[in-house]
Each structure stands twice: as C-alpha cells, then as structure tokens.
Amino acid sequence: MAQCEQASRAQPLGGEARSCTASWRCGHLNHRRPLGTHSNNPFALVKGVSSFIGITDIFLLSPLETVIMSMRLLHFNGLGELTWTVFAKQDIPPYAILSHTWGSGEVSFEDLVNNTGKKKAGYRKILFCGDQATRDSLEYFWVDTCCIDKRNLTELSTAINSMFRWYQKAVKCYVFLSDVSTSGMTNAEAHHSTWEAALRTSRWFTRGWTLQELIAPASVEFFSLQFQRLGDKRSLEQLIHEITRIPVDALQGEPLVNFSQFERMQWAENRQTTEEEDGAYCLLGIFGVSMLPNYGEGKANALRRLRKAIDEAEYPDNVGWQQEETRSCMYETHWTQTCLLTLPVLVPDTNPNFVGRSDILKKVRSQLGPSLHGSGITSQTRLALFGLGGIGCVSL
C-alpha cells in the first residue's frame, strides 16, 4: 500500500517544475526521494512507488480512491497560449472536461510537448473546451487525447482507473457530437426537431468509454458540430433514456450501487471500443472497482478479471457469489451474452463452506459438459435448477 503525502506540480508548456521532495509509505517503511523535475513526467511519484513495491501494488487500495495520484489540466496562459499544469490529488482545482468520439488527427500529449498539434483536426475540439470553460468561469479543463501521456504505461494505467472519478468530479462535462449538425441555426435548442434524429443515431451513444462519461458527471451539456448547445443531461433526459435504455434515476445521479450488476451490464450492451480489452476496462468505474490494464490479454481474459474484481469487492471474505440469495441463474447467462458472445460459461470457485450434494454437483457438471472449459466454443448449454425455497438451489 502506498500513500502519497506530497506530489509535484509541473510548470507550463516547455518549462520545468521545481524539484521537490515527497514521501510514501510501503507497509511500515517510510522512504523519501526527489520527485517530478520535468513537466512531461508528472507521475514520477507513481513510477517511484512502482519501482519499489511492484506496479500491481498501486491498485491494492480502496476502489477509485488511491489510484488518483495527480491530474494534468489544460489552461491558457497570460498570452492566450495553451499550456498545462499537473496538480496533486489534494490540490486539483475546479475544471471542465470534454467527452467526444475519437477520429483522425487527434492531438496527443507528445504534440503538446513538441508544439505540433495546432494544425491537427482535433485541436479545434480542445480550443472549444477551453473557450466554453472560460464562459463558465472555469480556468482549467481536461481532454483525454492530450492530457494523458500514453507512452508512460504507469500513467496510462492510473488514468484508466481514475477516469470515472475524473468525470464525476468535473464541474462541467461538454459532449462534442461531431455527427450532429446545426448548420445555419442561430438557436439550436429552439429547433429540437431538426437535429433529434441525428442525435438518436450519434456514434457517441455507441462507444464504450462514453457510458461513464454520460453517467458520472452531474452536469453534462451537449454540443453540435458547430459548437452550438443542444441541451443538457436533465433537459434531454427522456430522449437519452430512449436512446440508451439507462433509467432516468441513473441519469439524475442515483448511486450506481442501487442498480444491480445485471442492469448496469445492460447499459453497456452493444457498445464498442477500439481496443477489445477496453470493453472491460471502460466498466471499472461503473462497477466501482480498480484493475491493472493488460492490453494484449484479449477481451475474454479482461472480462474474467473484471468479474473477479467485482465479486471480490462485493464479497471481501471470499465466500463467493453463490451466497447472494437474490442472484438468479439469468445473471450468469446475461453476463456472458452481453460481455462476450464467445466467452465460455464461467464457473466460480467452489464455496469452501458448501458440503454435501456431491451427487447433484456431479450431475450438473456432466450436463454442462465441455462448454465449461473448452476453448473456441461458440455454443452454450443452459441448465436450470429448480426446487422449493431454502433447499439450496442458489448455493448449488
């Protein structure tokens, strides 16, 4: 377990931050070392910890809390030039955040460092976010394409686990819809019928990462290709509900723990991600867990690890999900069908406190057969257990 006591703040674009000293604790030890002397390496503390205790230990703390070590925020300097500052967790100021779908010509963090992003197509989205934040009296803003140094795997891992909380803590979230046009309009909000059809079919509602970007922030405002405001999450909630099938209560900020895992998995149904593993990673915040990304493991393995993390968070005593009396057999089937059609049915570890019924267990396993553990299996065997209440169907 690592605990950050002080983190460094980077200087604006092209400059260097003053070096400072920070401490972290690993168990009962207390180590000190200089941190963060360069603006393009604000996560030196995380790297320092990982080199001492192992990178996986960064994520042993409570879900969605300790993974947020620092945050790189954009702003305009006195000359009106785009720059950034890195803030330690406890010093993060109010900020706006952008939600969008990625396209060609996005501006990366490397582009910001080298000042090579101004001619890229994605730069206008960054300027829009900054200008809109200014209009909302916010100095700082965050854009995923360029506020994460994706060359730094430690920083990328931390960002993935922090993403839901970053959107949740944003004062404003601006959704830029590149496929919804309001050309020729002076007041798009007053001409709802002219763009509603385009909004219903917008690519933004089909992407995996935008699910949490819709749910997490309290304030979500939608803008067209021409940067005209279409409305916000509250004024468009019925339309958004019809498009996404997400309950209005969830859109209004009802705690996600009040919705079953089954319901939350339904919200992610049919959403796509560019990297197949992101189909699992984009759901970390939705289920309130942390997990170390491992690109290349494949979607099936990523989903297995996600499910394990969810079950461990829900059952910290490791008794297993069998003891939840209200969980139905349908949940197992829906998880498999929604997340990964080619994923074999997952069988949880046997509950060590469950004894007897060996004859029934043997019959269950024989009925399910090779579909339990085979590879490349596209068909599944469904088996229903039924009986009087209290005789142990759920435990089985």
Structure description:
- This protein has 396 residues and is of the alpha/beta class.
- The protein contains 15 helices and ten strands.
- It has helices at 44-53, 109-114, 123-135, 144-147, 153-169, 192-200, 210-215, 237-244, 248-251, 261-267, 278-281, 284-287, 299-314, 329-339, 358-368; strands at residues 2-4, 20-26, 29-35, 70-76, 82-88, 95-99, 140-142, 172-176, 220-223, 229-232.
- The strands form three sheets. Strands 7-6-8-9-10 form a five-stranded mixed β-sheet, sandwiched between helices. It has a three-stranded antiparallel β-sheet with strand order 1-2-3, with helices on one face. Strands 4-5 form a two-stranded antiparallel ribbon.
- Strand 4 (70-76) and strand 5 (82-88) form a beta hairpin.
- Helix 10 packs parallel to helix 14.
- The longest helix is centred in the middle third of the chain and has 17 residues, at 153-169.
- The radius of gyration is 23 Å and the shape is globular.
- The model is unreliable at 1-68, 318-349 and 370-379 (pLDDT under 50).
